[in-house]
Amino acid sequence: MKGIEIAKKLNISTSALRHYEAWGLVPYVERAANGYRIYTKEHEAYFQCIRAMYAGFGMDLIREVMPRIIRGEELDALWLINKAQVNLHAEKETVQRTVDMLDLKELNDLPKYRNKNSFTIGEVAAEANVSASAIRHWENEGLIHPERQQVSGFRIYSSSDIRKVLIIRTVQRVVYSLDTVREVLSELDKHNVAQAKEIALKSLQYIDNALVEQVRGISYLQNLLDIVSKKER
User: Fold this and answer.
1) Do 197 and 43 contact (CB within 8 A), yes or no?
2) Are 102 and 196 in contact (CB under 8 A)?
3) Phi-psi region for residue 12, left (φ > 0), alpha (ψ -120 to 50) or beta?
4) Cα separation of 51 and 100, whole Å?
């Protein structure tokens, strides 16, 4: 099978096929006497799987999964896929928590959160599913202003700070720009949640679409595993 035939089916360039080959994402490709690559149905299944998984999982994960399948480490590959889906579910829960907080009538009248009045940076990071370094960066950018203990100087975060961190991370993952984040936070200070909620709902929609794409990619992965299994018999 010629590379151009596979490329046309997948609506990509032959150079993309060669990149996947160079990255070790498909098994070794034999060459004819004239130097042309000889692709098999198995190679085609790998290329189809790569393209189908890209939208839902991204190339970084594909570059971890495919070499494992080539080496016969199918279970390791499947656990990586499972971890990605667990992470997507965690992301949905975090964004949904943001939406729920934005639904509160008074932004400055939050109930006691998890039966606590104050939180450490580690606890806030866990609640918002971000790194502590990201929270420190947002503080340096002037997006959040936690209080500090007088004696130790440790940051003290309130439930309002947690909501603000949730909003920042949700908005930034959709629009990326810190200027837009500042604009959203400014509107929140005026008790206007419309912009923040619109972005959060868009994020939920993106996550739902990613789930659909992941399921689609897994169906192609199953087809690839079936072909590899038949070859090994």
Assistant:
1) no
2) yes
3) beta
4) 35
Q: What tens digit of pLDDT does each residue of 156-178 get?
A: 888 888 888 988 888 888 877 88
Using the Cα atoms of residue 93, residue 77, residue 10 and residue 231 in order, give the sign of their dihedral.
Answer: negative
Task: Write the CA distances from 161 to 115, 118, 147, 158, integer angstroms.
Answer: 15, 9, 10, 5
The reported pTM is 0.80
- Please report which confidence band the pLDDT of residue 113 belongs to, taking 50, 70 and 90 as the band edges: low
Q: Return the residue matching tokens 């990326």.
A: 176
Q: Two tokens at 60?
A: 């970084």
Distance CA 223, CA 233 (A): 16
Map tokens 């971000």 to a residue.
Answer: 130
- Number of residues that this document lists for the chain: 233
Tokens of 65: 């999964």
Query: Residue 127: its pLDDT value, please?
Result: 85
pLDDT value, residue 106:
47
Distance (Å, rounded) from C-alpha 131 to C-alpha 121?
9
Residue with tokens 């206007």: 192
The HSE-up count of residue 154 (CA atoms within 13 Å, CB side) is 8
Characterize the bridge pairing of strands 30-31 and 37-38: antiparallel
Specify the DSSP element, H or E, that contains 119: none
